[in-house]
Amino acid sequence: MLGIAGTIPMEDVPLLTGRLTMSDGDILIEGRRIPVSRGTSALIGAAVKTSEALGTPEPFGYIVGDIGRGVGSRHLYKHLVDTFAESAFHTFTFHYLQPIVHWHNRLQQVIQEMDKRPVLVADAGFMYVAKMSGHAPMYDLFTPDIGELAFLADEMAPHPFYTRGFILHEENRVADLIARAYEHNNAARFLLVKGEKDCLADREGILCEVDGPVEEAMEAIGGTGDTLTGIVSALICSGMDMKEAAAVAMRTNRLAGYYSRPTPATQIIDIIRHIPRALEDTLG
Amino acid sequence: MSFLDFFRDKLKQGAPGDNGNADRGIMVFENTGEVIQAEDVLKREGWEVRVMGPPPEIQSGCDLVIEFPLIEKLNILRTLEGEGIPPLQMVPVTGPLLQPVDIFQVKDFGEYLMVRAANMKLTVEKATGTIVNISGGGCPDVPYLASAMVGKSLRDAPSPREIGHTLCGYSLQLAYEEARRRCLA
Question: Residue B52: phi, psi to the nearest 5?
Fold first, then answer.
């Protein structure tokens, strides 16, 4: 089963755990309805749609409200530290959490002691804290965009806000940034980079690239990286190996964007709706 | 202006320049939201302060500190205590601090303009000044900021400085200011 942990931008939502489904464009968990917008709800929407299309079990969610104060994130970290050892996920994706190094390290300790640990995917705030803590190589997949790749490549930066200018200027040299991230052990086993060309890489370099269809507006639309992470997580959990899952996810995410006929004002839910058709075309 | 006033103004300026920071200190706060509030208060009062990244020994996560002229420690502390946001620590700067990103990238989509600062992107419809999308970032206030700002005009939307809490929120503030500068000028 696929597990997903992250926050949603509603301060009054307590920790919710349970199977994730979708209805009328909203996420359903523990009987609560959560609208899909950018962030973890977009990742969940994409993962649910992908799982439905593949006929695999619904993802299991750990969701809490947090508007940036970190209160919900701390609650979620603590719950995971207390319960993760007893879980049996095939794949687990960590997403929008406040980067808090000591909580990350406590959770990592729990995971390290598991007899069989899940495939570990990290994106957004949890990817930041994984790098910040020096434990990036423990993860199987990071899913940065180009700006976040520059952050991973900067061994001095604890957060993308501090990425040094000379590295930001290297953004058109993706292969060099990937090499630099691995050189300083600031990358997961695989990197799935979302950019003008999407690519999968490991320590040896770029393994595969997908560059079409091209929709320039996708860069401006909040949540297109979240949907890519959601799709690839569900595909990995279905049993695909990393390279196949990444190639299918990159192509599917681009196709779903293309089918939505996007402008820079398109909202992410309009792309998520097209994931089943895009996945069918990619796998067809 | 009296001589003392002149002297005090010089002290308030107190920026470190490029040749050292021996006269500078840093203030550490409970969270990024307090840093942003304190920066507002101190700049409003005329202090020359800068938001910077903390040195490695005190990094705990999503951090910012405020660099200030050390000689004004007591006056600044009194000001912040008066505002109810006293720092957790005030210590001398002992090494180089991390510089926040100061590079903007702008992409013109014709009807829309996208401004990026660090990992945050804000896109505006040029004709109306309406914020149509916010992308990038990974801290939990980013989806919250997007829900509060998207669909509103640059003139009416709340600023990330007012309602954000993290470094991603601070990055978005920089993109928001640059978008205002370009679209509302």
Answer: -140, 175
